[in-house]
## 1
Amino acid sequence: MNADNWTILEIQDLDVNYGGIQALRNINLMINKGEVVTLIGANGAGKSTTLRAISQIVHVRSGKIIYNGRNIVRRQPHEVVQMGIAHSPEGRRVLGRQTVFDNLLLGGYVRSDQAEVKADIQRQFDLFPRLAQRRNQLAGTLSGGEQQMLAIARALMSKPKLLLLDEPSLGLAPAIVREIFTIIVNLRTTGVTILLVEQNANLALQIANRGYVLEAGCITLAGTASELIDDERVKKAYLG
């Protein structure tokens, strides 16, 4: 593997329990720098749990999560952000009573370079012009699509090397979904590596380099995006 295409994240034999239920079992996956990798699967398959495990929001029972050569299991969530991993969660979870600007400012909370933080807010406004128009508007009054843009922009404020995107198309109109996915494709050109959880498997595989299929907490298939699109099992279960 050349210097521009090294492994940024590797998950080894990952097990996660919720109470007495095993949510993830023996998960193994890897992501190379600059890739878009997608996790597809039905509701409850463990996709969001995988992202939360990487972010250290949920407790890992066993296994390793190796980011840039270091095992980050047992790190605090804010340490994971400082190391270069940002998480845009399912359901957006913007701070509804704060302005768009303040949401973005809070996204850079782990950073000490305040002048550069302000410059990065302007970069987000350049990337998401609709947010620039609403910079002083309360986030809770934005449309669903605008809130999703804000959730992604807020995650980018920590200057991540790896961006975890959880269901960015959820509940959005098709035209807005296309806009969001165009932004995701453009993000890859800025050097951000992306792990994408998305129920719209067809759309996800169109922009991904590779993918993994999760079923009942286990990875059952893996391959390039084109291999998965052509796989009869994936077609039958996820591509309609």
## 2
Amino acid sequence: MAYRSRSFCNIKAFSLPRSYVCYDLETTGLGSDAHVIEMGAVRVLDGYEDDRFSTFVALPPGAHVEPGAFAVNHISEAMLEGAPSILDAYAAFVEFVGELPLVGQNIKSFDNVLIGRVAAELGLPSVVDNGSFDTMLLYRELVGKPANLAAICHHYGIENELAHRAWADARATSDCYLAIIRDAASRSVDVRDLDAAPIAHELDGELICFTGNTYELPKRDCEILALEHGAKLHNNVTKRVTMLVDLEGRESGKVRKARDYGTAIVGGHAFLARIGMTAEDLRRPNIVPRC
């Protein structure tokens, strides 16, 4: 899915961790006295999924799942029978998280508060102390509202077929977080601000302008790769530009101008092929966006 950059962002993509635990909680309700009934998490190392964590949590005596909560997550009290206690579930979660920071959707105001209360009540270390990054707040800074998980998934073309179940929401949120990192890293102020020394020479002599920006083909990553492979960059299409790289495949003003000048127009995948790469290579951890 293509998306438009409003302006250069204040989010420094390079400072956001690529190793983390993304988690989500399902609860008996939304009040301050809510109890955790499901915990789901995915552990990500260097941008790649390493392991997952998923468990129901038994209700404490006298507690019940509120009708409103059941209508959303479809977790019944019968499903919780025989589940681990909150002590066992949280202790396992602490071990799963280790020293990694947390990522989650709206965790600053809800999940972190609840999990911190659980840790205090059990007398166990709080994983919140590891630090945390909230996709709702990051997305709101980068793109704007609405910033609920469904809206963020839609914006980046991420599927979440089991929404409002802890494991599924955690994994979708992790995908959104990685998309946010790439989105932030792709919003270049000006190509003249980029600094990358050539490490290869496939594009020697080319003066390239890029148009468009997508999750699969981030503009900033591609601009850096062009510099690293010997090209020079220009912000706009001029008669001196030798190649326009169209990352979205749409009829933009730059595309029309390049056509008028007779400038070579190539797609993003064809550009990568020129330097012996594919779009999949951009997702590898050794290709680090610079921001």
## 3
Amino acid sequence: MKFNAEKIYRHSFASDNNSGVHPYIMQALFGANSGHVIAYGDDPFTLEAKNIFAGHFGDDVRVYFVMSGTGANTSALYSITRPYNSIICAETAHINVDECNAPGKFSGCRITDIPTEDGKLNVEMIKACIKGRGDVHNSQPGVISITQPTELGTLYSADEIRQICDFAHDNKMLVHMDGARISNAAFALDMPFKEFTRDAGIDVLSFGGTKNGMMFGEAVVFFRDDIATDFEYFQKQSTQLISKMRYISVQFSAFLKNDLWKINAGNANKMAELLADKVSKIEGISIAYPRHTNAVFVYLPKEIISKVIDDFPFYIADDENGIVRWMCSFDTTEEDIRDLLSCIRSQMNK
């Protein structure tokens, strides 16, 4: 879907990447922008951010800051696999659909994708696609990658994650979590990050910030020291070692201090809840997938999609069935919701 690149929209529902930067994050960036510090992360800002992560996940956690979500997923998966491995994920996973095969290119691994109805994997699905273990002619299953929340906006419970991790570890595999929207998941579950990641058995986590009010930057978080040993080399080789690291680190410090992550995610989730509630009451429109976080998927009459999208950009998730996706952000307001609904109603009545 191509939008008008020359237009600044008052509000977009296409992606939470389309929002601006939270003022506290911008203030933190300005605060870090004086004096000289050692490059590549040997600086007080990065040390502080890592200490804050340790407060959330444990003192022995290993944290590395990278530039983007694709960079986080790719460098993490690259570092914990061998080229003869396969990476198992849901068919809708970002690493399978939206990363131009970067994880496959850098790791050399086969991406084994599993069709799902709700974006979630389970042990039975994974068992069905694990074949050729120990056979030199087959790719060897090495990693299960799950997304929390999923690309369809659904959530894994901590128990569901634990079941997948237990199965993986029993079968000598690792588990990676794509947490690009992990703050939205934590808010919806009303759980600390650690409870549904490290405590549930996740080995390595891509921790997102850009979709929740940061300017740029994500984190790769290892919960096992033995698999993190050489990550800095993979980070450098995959172009994710940033020289002016403080400008990512200081954002994470501001993001995780005083629960800014929770405030931002809470607003995005609540606005999505309001949108889902209001739009489901419009005759001819129905919810496509359960709304758990800040994504709303609906069946929208095909004849009005192109008319609404001109004023309120959004993505078409399933063109054949008329399913569209609306993403709410940290800065989405009730007025934004009212304006979108007003536009939809006016088009429905024509």
## 4
Amino acid sequence: MPDQAPSSILYGVDAGVATITLNRPEALNSFTAIMHQELAAALDRAAADVSVRAVLLTGAGRGFCAGQDLSDELVKPDGAPKDIGVMLERYYNPLIERLRALPLPVVCAVNGAAAGAGVSLALACDIVLAARSAAFMLPFCNIGLLPDSGATYMLPRLLGPARAAALAFTGEKLPAEKAADWGLIWQAVDDDKLLETASKLAHRLAAAPTKGIAAAKTAFEAAWGNDLTTQLALERRLQGDLGHSHDYQEGVSAFLEKRKPSFKGC
């Protein structure tokens, strides 16, 4: 009986945190079709598990994610290129939308280089920490393509059009500390403290009122396209719903009773 191929995604749950690890370290965790399918299944599994209150996403080995594996599914058997747009529609776009819509806080620990769609994957998470030695790169320009998987949407909004254009048009590396200074990510962390720091943050969020966090996530996402009046109406609706939640009642009671609250995410 042949040996089973190792999973390209590792999944584990501890104290309300689902840790999802990209597990193709020999290829800098670059994406294949199988890896896409396994990552989608892991995210769905986390969303369906009532014990999971937060997600931590990271990579195995020395890199976070090098984007698409250029040796996988980009060339047909006859040597002709495949339609990259179809691959985006089938795999990458649903992945980004799944992460943005996940009703859980998602912490990303960028443990090494993030390149191409690996940058987009990180930015689709809610809070991004990176090792000081890590860097972000958009080398699409070196092979005649444009940044995708939401990069052209996120980068100008996070960095401004000038910096976004320079990174996209030159493919130069953006070191983690500068990425934090520019507001692309939340924090650069010493390499040997990255996973510990990210795990502590994820566990802190898992113990928080995650229904409120999910509502804030919904509001932030909608704000990209809403005018002020529409956004105010959305806030009113979401806040009205949260006012009936267990966590709101618990938070107020704990404040008045001068004790630590016990949130349930509902």
